[in-house]
Amino acid sequence: MAKPYLSVIIPAYNESKSIAVTLFDIDKYLAQMDYSYEILVVNDGSKDNTAEIVDKLTPVIKNLVLIDNQQNKGKGGVIRQGMLEAKGTIRVFTDADNATSIDQINKLLPHFKEDYQVVIGSRAAEGAELAVRQPFWKFLLGRMGNLFIRLMVLPGVKDTQCGFKAFTEEAAEAVFLRTTIFGWGFDIEALAIAKLLGYRIKEVGIRWVNNPDSRVKPSSYLKVFLETIRIRVNLWWKKYGNGNRNSL
Questions:
Q1: Pairing with 115, which of 52, 80, 169, 219 sits 20 to 30 Å away (CA)?
Q2: Tens of pLDDT, residues 108-162
Q3: CATH of the domain at 113
Q4: 173 lies in a domain?
Q5: In a domain? residue 245
Q6: Containing domain of residue 61, as a range?
Q7: Number of Cα atoms under 13 Å in the Cβ half of residue 188
Q8: Looking at the 3D structure of the chain, how many domains does it have?
Q9: What is the three-state SS of the chain?
Q10: For residues 208-232, b (16+ Cβ closer than 10 Å) or e, as one string?
Q11: Does residue 248 lie in a domain region?
Q12: Buried/exposed 37-57: b ≥16 CB within 10 Å, e otherwise
């Protein structure tokens, strides 16, 4: 196929219950747009039949590609893989549970014409709509965690963990070639690297629906805390380079 304008990257681990609905929803919406697209599902060593479902849909859904990993890499690992294998001019990753529906992409795309290279969906920025809210303990831990993240590495970013982020082709390749964290803190690392490299980041309020079957547990917040410290240390020790986009 010709080079697509938009690549949609979907990390998938044991998503057999939701992946087909999400894929049909994305394809139905994007088929109405005036730009070309591809959809990449990166299977993260699922133990269910997620990969089989996606494979069977490839003849049906336009420009659907399955990247099938037999071993689990972690969400950050498969998003890195998808971002680097994608061909789109703009590359967005989104969750397999459709917590942020693909129509929200049209809130992000206009900002690339304003010389932003990274545009991220946010549940805290102006215009955000939380259709189904998180349990209070998640909300509280999330707010506390974000304050820590802002103090340590990303001042000014209100929501680093929303799973809907778009990058230009250049920014995606420069950033994800440098990422090292494949757990829950991968979003923070990607944004910290983007900032280090001088890419402009825009935070946009989006509509988001909490998934009651979310795999985020209290221990996940501790992991993010520790990974944020690791990112800060990596920045101090210039593990991501000195800010030169053309060198690693």
A1: 80
A2: 999 999 999 999 999 989 999 987 555 654 555 556 668 889 999 999 999 999 9
A3: 3.90.550.10
A4: yes
A5: no
A6: 6-236
A7: 29
A8: 1
A9: CCCCCEEEEEEECCCCCCHHHHHHHHHHHHCCCCCCEEEEEEEECCCCCHHHHHHHHCCCCCCEEEEEECCCCCHHHHHHHHHHHCCCCEEEEECCCCCCCHHHHHHHHHHHHHCCCEEEEECCCCCCEEEECCCHHHHHHHHHHHHHHHHHCCCCCCCCCCCEEEEEHHHHHHHHCCCCCCCCCHHHHHHHHHHHCCCCEEEEECEEECCCCCCCCHHHHHHHHHHHHHHHHHHHCCCCCCCCCCCC
A10: bebbeeeeeeeebbeebbebbebbb
A11: no
A12: bbbbbbbbbbeeebbebbeeb
pLDDT tens digits along 60-102: 998 999 999 999 999 999 999 999 999 999 999 999 999 999 9
Residue with tokens 């690297």: 193
